[in-house]
Predict the structure.
Amino acid sequence: MADVTKRLFLRHLRGTPTTWVRHHIAGKVRREGIGQSFWYRPLTAVLSEVPVDDRELPLLFHAHTRDFADVTVQATVTYRVVDPALAATRLDFSIDPAKGVPRARPLDQVATLLAELAQQPALDLLAGLSLAEALTGITPVREAVSTTLQNEPRLTEIGVAVVSARVVAIRPEPELERALQTPTREAVQVESDRATFARRAQAVEQERGIAENELQNKIELARREEQLVSQHGANEHRRAELEAAARLVVAQGEAQRETVGTTAAAERARLVAAAQADKERILAAAEADKERALADARAEGVRAVGLAEAEIEAAKLAAYAAIPADVLRALALKELAGKLPEIGQLTVTPDVVTDLLTRLAPAR
């Protein structure tokens, strides 16, 4: 449908690539064609819009066969307007200039005409066929409908052409359809039963073969079990012989090991005793050397200490020899004072002075 917009007292129409538009003013054609776009005055304009795209028309109608069976025909017709100028003069494709909406439904008229034209050849053809022929005769019905529609002058007069006609299905009433399907269903069921019986017979045969295989397997297992028992007895006898020989070897080895062990123990005891004696001798010698070294070290230390003390005394005496006698007396008094106990009160008598002078006299 064309798009109509309003601008004050004017209108603008914009068409589509699938619509043919004609513009009349005062009975004269001003514009016509596909994809038109123009301004116009709605008070003076007369507009027609014809769709030129392909249209699908589904059809569903009933027909009667020669044996008075009712069937339903489902078909689809594809058509288009090939002469829009002619169609605009034969059908009302006018649109409202102010709003752009169609004023009539011309495509419904075309659809009604196509439905009637398509039904008539199909009804005539099915009336001369039996039900079985009608159900399997879709191709003749389709050809009859297509030929009739393409050669129909009434469609040419209104500028419409049929592109194709297809008959999708021809079906009887549901009860009749089920009745017609019964033989086929029964035949399929018979084939199914035959296949089931064949499968069961094959299964029985396979089970018999399996039972025979199991019996043969049991016989073979019994024979192998007998061989296994015989081999087991031989293996036990051989194992007993090997165990006796092994025990003899073990006894001989243990006797030889005991002999060797006794000799080795005696030798080991002798070696241990000798090693212990050597160890004690070495330890005694080491202890003696240690004591001797310690004694020498102590003597050397004492000697070194004595020499150091003698050197100290000699140095001290040499120092005292160079000091005046008064200084020596003062130092002696100082040393004496350091050795005296704390004195709270001191009473000096002539005896004390005399005794003190007597002690200091040798220091001079």
About this structure: The chain has a mean pLDDT of 83. The two ends are 157 Å apart (CA to CA).
